[in-house]
Amino acid sequence: MANMNANHAQNAPAYFSAHDIHAYYGESYIVQGVSMNVHEGEILALLGRNGAGKTSTLRALARLDDPAVHKGEIWLDHQPLHTMKSYQAAQAGIALVPEDRRIIQGLTVEENIQLAQIEPPIGWSLERIYDLFPRLGERRKQEGTTLSGGEQQMLAIGRALSRDIKLLLLDEPYEGLAPVIVQEIEKTLHLIREQGITTIIVEQNAVAALNLADRALILDTGQVVFDGTAKEVLDNEELRHEYLAI
Ligand SMILES: Nc1ncnc2c1ncn2[C@@H]1O[C@H](COP(=O)(O)OP(=O)(O)OP(=O)(O)O)[C@@H](O)[C@H]1O
Ligand SMILES: [Mg+2]
């Protein structure tokens, strides 16, 4: 599918949108009215300081139990995710790759992927995933939890793609990885975008995320303080200093 971010109509409904999301951990009010629009094929960088609410926002969008969404609407390709539980939202095409990657112990690389494919909607085949990540193909029979950090991140992304997804949410995919591995994963995220997958990436490595992304959203204390192009953030020193410390 073509990358459509350059020529989408300004007023067309976004492929993915969140409107005024308010979410709580118990009594703690954390996500305070977040809205966003992401067009099909785009990469959005979701940035902000530690504790700004990035992970909480991703979890709310994926409809996990915590934080609980008390108000707001979430739409993915005309489907109302705000009415759904997490498993329904997953079936509707949202996939969260959490920071800790959740590779299943005792299973090989291949079994980790196959387990994700036991029920429809099935996405990329094993061959297609190994084409994207040759290292995973080489290690298909190795226990997943014995992979290096970078390889585990590749497995977590490959496993998400093994489902028929419409929106990929990545929480700090570069965390703890050597620069050369970050570059390798960056290249794959470009390839994934070329194949039409829409992505929201949360990263402490804001420069890397901004170099990859089309657009950026900056959060501070659970609120959106900037919504614009990635280039605008890279060019705005004040904004970078104030919210990103770069
Ligand atoms: N399970 C929880 N219960 C209560 N408060 C929580 C919980 N998880 C996170 N918080 C609080 O919500 C706020 C936002 O946290 P969140 O993890 O979303 O931030 P973040 O932007 O992802 O930060 P980081 O960059 O450190 O990962 C923080 O003040 C945090 O203490
Ligand atoms: Mg976080």
From TrEMBL:
SUPFAM superfamilies: P-loop containing nucleoside triphosphate hydrolases. InterPro entries: AAA+_ATPase, ABC_transporter-like_ATP-bd, ABC_transporter-like_CS, BCAA_Transport_ATP-bd_LivF, P-loop_NTPase. One of its GO terms (molecular function) is ATP hydrolysis activity. Signal peptide: none annotated. The keyword ATP-binding applies. Residues 16-246 form the ABC transporter domain. Keywords: Amino-acid transport, ATP-binding, Nucleotide-binding, Transport. PROSITE patterns: ABC_TRANSPORTER_1, ABC_TRANSPORTER_2. GO terms for biological process: L-amino acid transport. Belongs to the ABC transporter superfamily. This is ABC transporter ATP-binding protein. The lineage of its organism: Bacteria, Pseudomonadati, Pseudomonadota, Alphaproteobacteria, Rhodobacterales.
